[in-house]
Design brief:
This protein is an alpha/beta fold and about 450 residues long. The chain is about 40% helix and about 15% strand. The chain starts with about 25 loop residues before the first helix and ends with a helix. The structure holds phosphoenolpyruvate and cobalt (II) ion (CO). The site of cobalt (II) ion (CO) has 5 residues, from loops.
Length: about 450
C-alpha cells in the first residue's frame, strides 16, 4: 500500500489499538516498558530466520507445521513438570506426524509468552458485580475480586521472566538429551500408555527404536544432533503492543528489526484490521507472522492484509490460520484458497479446528467436541486437495495433562465428566490422549 507511512517500532501508536487493558496508571506502564526494553532478547534473530526457512518448506508441502499449547498460559504452571508434560505431548505428536505421516515437522509451541488474551467484553458481571475482564496473567488475575482484576503493568515484567524461565528449560530439554529419539518410548504419558492410542504410539516407538539399533549395528553413527536433539520454537498472540515493542530489537548482523519476544507471532481474529495497530506493528518486524481467519472474513480485506504483511511474497513469512468451524469450512475455505492460488501468494495454510467449534455444555462448561475438531481438519485437507493447494499445518489448544475439557475422543469424555478435571483458565484444550489421537488421524491425511 503506497499510502503507508514509514514503519518504526512505535508507529503502531498512531493507529487504533484494540484489546489493550485499561491500565490504571500510565507512568507505571512506561516504567515497566522502559525496563523491559533494556533486558536481553528472549530469542535470537538467527533462530527466527531458521524458523522462516522451515516454514517456507511448509508452503510447498515439504514440511508440516505443528503449532500448539495452552489457550492461555498461567504463571502458576511455569513449573518443570508442567513444561515437560507440554513438551512431551508435542514431541509425541511430532514423532507420529513425522514417522507415520512421512514429513518433517516444524514444532511451534503456544508457550513461553502466551500470557495475554483478547476478550469479547472489557468487563464481566457476576451477581450484579462488574469488574474488568481477566485478560491473561500478564495483565491481571483470574480471581473475581476488585483487587485481583485490576490490571497491573508489573505483571508484564513477571511475564517476561516467566517466558525466560520456560524457554531456558525448553532449551535444556530439547538440546540436552531429553528429546533424543532413543527416548521416544519414554515420552508416552502415564495415563495414555494403557489406552488404544498409547498402544499405537508404543508400536511406532518400537519401530523407531529398531531403526536406530539397526543403524548402530551396521556402524552408522547415531550420536548426532538429528537423533539427539530437536528444536521447539515459541509463539504467542502479539496482543500487548507495548510489551512487543519493548522486546523489538535491531539484529546487529543485518540491521533488520525482529520482535525477540518469540520466534513466531500471530494476530488474532479480533485485532487483524488492515489499518489497526496490530497489523501496523507486525508488518515491520521480520518474524514469521500468523493471522487468524474466521468465518466472517472478507476476501478483499484478506488480500489487503496479505499485501501489507507480506509485500514481497516471501515464502515462510505469512501463515494464515483458518478457524472457520466445522459447519462453515466447506463453504468458506475454497474461495479463499482459489483466490490465493490465482494471485500466486506464498502462504502456509494452517488449520485451527478449535476456535470456531466452542460451545457451552449443559453443565455450563465451555467445551469442544472431538468429532467437530476432526471434521474441521478433514474438511481442511479435502478443500486443499480439491483446490490443488497445500495443507501446511495445524494449530491446537492442548496440554500434556489428563484434563477433561473437550468432549469425546477414544475415552469418550461426556458432558457429566467435564467437571472431573477441568483446569483451563480460558478455552478448553485437548488432553494428551486426545492430542495423540488427532495426530494419528492427521498423519493418515498427510501421507495420502
Ligand atoms: C486464540 O488463539 O487463543 C484466540 C483467541 O484465537 P482467535 O483470535 O482465532 O479467536
Ligand atoms: Co483460545
Amino acid at each position: 500500500m503506497a499510502s503507508r507511512k514509514e514503519w518504526n517500532k512505535s508507529s503502531w501508536q498512531e493507529q487504533q489499538v484494540l484489546q489493550q487493558p485499561n491500565w490504571p496508571n500510565e507512568p507505571d506502564v512506561y516504567k515497566v516498558l522502559n525496563n523491559l526494553a533494556t533486558l536481553p532478547p528472549l530469542v535470537f534473530a538467527g533462530e527466527i530466520r531458521s524458523l522462516k526457512d522451515l516454514l517456507a518448506k511448509a508452503v510447498v508441502g515439504e514440511a508440516f507445521l505443528l503449532q500448539g499449547g495452552d489457550c492461555s498460559e498461567n504463571f502458576s504452571d511455569v513449573t518443570a513438570p508442567k513444561i515437560r508434560e507440554t513438551l512431551k505431548v508435542m514431541l509425541q505428536m511430532a514423532i507420529v506426524l513425522t514417522y507415520a505421516g512421512g514429513k518433517p515437522v516444524i514444532k511451534v509451541g503456544r508457550i513461553a509468552g502466551q500470557f495475554a488474551k483478547p476478550r469479547s467484553s472489557d468487563t464481566e458481571t457476576i451477581e450484579g458485580v462488574t469488574l474488568p475482564s481477566y485478560r491473561g496473567d500478564m495483565v491481571n488475575h483470574a480471581e473475581f475480586t476488585e483487587e485481583m482484576r485490576q490490571p497491573n503493568p508489573k505483571l508484564m515484567l513477571k511475564g517476561y521472566n516467566m517466558a525466560a524461565s520456560t524457554l531456558n528449560l525448553l532449551r535444556a530439554f530439547t538440546r540436552g538429551g531429553y528429546a533424543a529419539l532413543d527416548r521416544v518410548q519414554a515420552w508416552n504419558q502415564e495415563f495414555v500408555v494403557q489406552s488404544p492410542m498409547g498402544r499405537s504410539y508404543n508400536r511406532l516407538a518400537k519401530q523407531i527404536d529398531n531403526a536406530i539399533r539397526f543403524m548402530n549395528t551396521i556402524g552408522i553413527p547415531t550420536d548426532i544432533p538429528q537423533v539427539n536433539q530437536t528444536q521447539l520454537f515459541t509463539s504467542h498472540e502479539a496482543l500487548l503492543l507495548g510489551y512487543e515493542e519493548a522486546l523489538t530489537r535491531v539484529d546487529s548482523t543485518t540491521g533488520d528489526w525482529y520482535d525477540c519476544s518469540a520466534h513466531m507471532l500471530w494476530i488474532g481474529e479480533r485485532t487483524r484490521q488492515v489499518d489497526g495497530a496490530h497489523v501496523e506493528f507486525l508488518r515491520g518486524v521480520l518474524n514469521p507472522i500468523g493471522v487468524k481467519v474466521g468465518p466472517e472474513y472478507d476476501l478483499d480485506n484478506i488480500k489487503k492484509l496479505i499485501d501489507v504483511l507480506n509485500p514481497d511474497n516471501e515464502p515462510g513469512r505469512l501463515t494464515l490460520i483458518t478457524r472457520l468451524g466445522m459447519s462453515n469450512i466447506e463453504k468458506a475455505l475454497p474461495p479463499l484458497l482459489r483466490e490465493a492460488k490465482k494471485e500466486g501468494y506464498n502462504i502456509v495454510w494452517s488449520c485451527d479446528p478449535m476456535h470456531a467449534n466452542t460451545y457451552t455444555a449443559e453443565s455450563g462448561h465451555k467445551t469442544r467436541n472431538f468429532n467437530d475438531i476432526l471434521s474441521e481438519i478433514t474438511c481442511f485437507f479435502e478443500a486443499h486437495w480439491s483446490e490443488g493447494t497445500v495443507p501446511g499445518g495445524v494449530h491446537f489448544e492442548m496440554t500434556g495433562d489428563n484434563v477433561t475439557e473437550c468432549i469425546g475422543g477414544a475415552r469418550n469424555i461426556i458432558d457429566d465428566e467435564l467437571q472431573n478435571n477441568y483446569l483451563t483458565s480460558c478455552d478448553p484444550r485437548l488432553n494428551a490422549e486426545q492430542s495423540l489421537e488427532v495426530a494419528f488421524q492427521i498423519a493418515d491425511m498427510i501421507r495420502s
